[in-house]
Amino acid sequence: MADFDNATKSISNIEKEILQLKSEISDTRQGIGLEVNHPELKQLMEENTRLRHRLRILQTAMEKETRLNGGEDNAVAAMNSIIGQLQEIFTKAITKAYPGLTVPAVITISSASKFGDYQCNSAMQIVQQLQQHSVKSSPRDVALNLIAALPGTIDFIDKIEVAGAGYVNVFLSKAYGEKRIMDILKEGVAAPCQKSRRVIVDFSSPNVAKEMHVGHLRSTIIGDSICRFLEFMGHDVLRINHIGDWGTQFGMLIAHLQDRFPDFQSVSPPISDLQGFYKESKVRFDSDEAFKKRAYECVVKLQSGESNYLKAWNLICDVSRKEFQIIYNRLDVKLIERGESFYQSRMEQIVIELKKGGYLEEDDGRLIMWGEDRKGIPLTIVKSDGGFTYDTSDMAAIKQRLHEENAEWLIYVTDAGQATHFQTIFSCARRSNILDHSKHRVDHVGFGVVLGEDGKKFKTRSGDTVKLAKLLDEGLKRSMDKLIEKERNLVLTPEELQAAQESVAYGCIKYADLSHNRNNEYVFSFDKMLEDKGNTAVYLLYAYTRIRSIARNCGGDYANNIQKVIDSTVLQLKHEKEWKLAKVLLRFTDVMLLITKNLSLHYLCEFVYEVCTTFSEFYDSCYCIKKNAKGKTNL
């Protein structure tokens, strides 16, 4: 056990150095605080290369350290995954007790404390498989056999019991819990130890010349949150905004720009309402054949790279880009723009490669591509008029990301309606040897639509799509009303009040989305998300403030030097509410590993909500602070 503890500390130290190096790499990559011609920039970029080399060495050392000190068994232990360790020991017990069967170890969290902390519910499946081999047994007898096949002593388990029809109840060791909580206090909350991967997350993706609307809200919030989660887990994440900045619509926009602002090349046109500008051009395109013809000619000239048309296109994109950035700044979302135009030359190349590989088939003048099983709808790679499609762009993009960016994991965050499209893209990429599942992971993170309180698709009273900027403005108004209702304006400075207003408004909008299963539709309601009870951002902020106030009210080292207090503390979890809170906190690793598998962040929201409610029970039952007759604080 001492060797394992030393190995764990070694891995932890390596992880800390990796995190520090990643921070330094990020700073040098961005040139923080430096002008383009700053004399230190070149030196820092060279330092960046050195740091990345050092990072690779450390990651290799961490993996080697894990292998040398017990292989996979200790790898799971090092991650502090209780469910993972239980799955391992019960899998071995099943194999030992019933060597001819292949039954997984099903581990769940117990629903009540009398049933232990965790349960192994594999007995019934074992009985069913035994029956197939003409062997009769009861679930309870199977459960007893499993317990008999377990190791005599398991350091993190206090006792194991059989209950009911073969449920194996596992009770955690309090000594183990006390040690784990002290480790967290001393070393901080750390992500489970995993191999770092190069991840590209494609999310948000608005269209140029159109305002961002409520339909972009979920992709932006979920995508950004997945990036934050993966960055915390130690992955190298590239956030891509695949904006719609190419296609036939730019022909009509450029033609309309030429008519409205003929001197646009020398005088910047005042296009503040790009949405209105788009609608004007669309009306002309639909009603004026001469204008439509000229619009198509503009597309051809743009795609051929004529400078005047490229300038017009850039001007239109810049106006949209500035509007998008205002929204991203408000939501604190960071993205790298890679629009469809980025893949234009790569689309031409992918068509050549797919033709050469024999993957394209002619169909009514089109060139199509089937997936591996030739089911569903094929991709249209080249239209009958010779033009490219979204399918072409997505095939070019997946190749660029896997083979130029060297990504190991691709994540696409879009509405659930695009699931079939992306499954076909992935299938075609596998068929053409672009995607290799032995090296790459790909996920489509789908989500349901946002509904209004009437249960219908969220729209304005006039039936229009809700603009995202107006939605955020309404959130700010509602949050300020709530702060004034709570009289926070009487105790906060104007600057503090504004910061609180934005934190509450944007935090509530984000959390309301993330706390719902992303696969389902959810009802957007400011009234519900601003409630201070239940699983809401307001309640979490309240709980966080309450927790922070304890150390502040204690004063002394508790408020100013908490590390000194931690170093001198011997933790004993005597009260049942203390022990309950500790056991909830110990589930953190398993929650993080679960989200790594399914990319569903509502599990994290449920976890932090349970932490808050369990802490509230603890706070109500155990004195954290009490004052003596003289009003002095006692702990």
From TrEMBL:
One of its GO terms (molecular function) is ATP binding. Its EC number is 6.1.1.19. It catalyses: tRNA(Arg) + L-arginine + ATP = L-arginyl-tRNA(Arg) + AMP + diphosphate. CDD domains: ArgRS_core. This is Probable arginine--tRNA ligase, cytoplasmic. InterPro entries: aa-tRNA-synth_I_CS, Arg-tRNA-ligase, Arg-tRNA-synth_N, Arg-tRNA-synth_N_sf, ArgRS_core, DALR_anticod-bd, Rossmann-like_a/b/a_fold, tRNAsynth_Ia_anticodon-bd. Residues 84-172 form the Arginyl tRNA synthetase N-terminal domain. It is an enzyme of class 6 (ligase). It is found in: Cytoplasm, Cytosol. Belongs to the class-I aminoacyl-tRNA synthetase family. Residues 4-61 form a coiled coil. Keywords: Aminoacyl-tRNA synthetase, ATP-binding, Coiled coil, Cytoplasm, Ligase, Nucleotide-binding, Protein biosynthesis. It comes from Anopheles atroparvus. GO terms for cellular component: aminoacyl-tRNA synthetase multienzyme complex; cytosol. It holds the Pfam family Arg_tRNA_synt_N. GO terms for biological process: arginyl-tRNA aminoacylation.
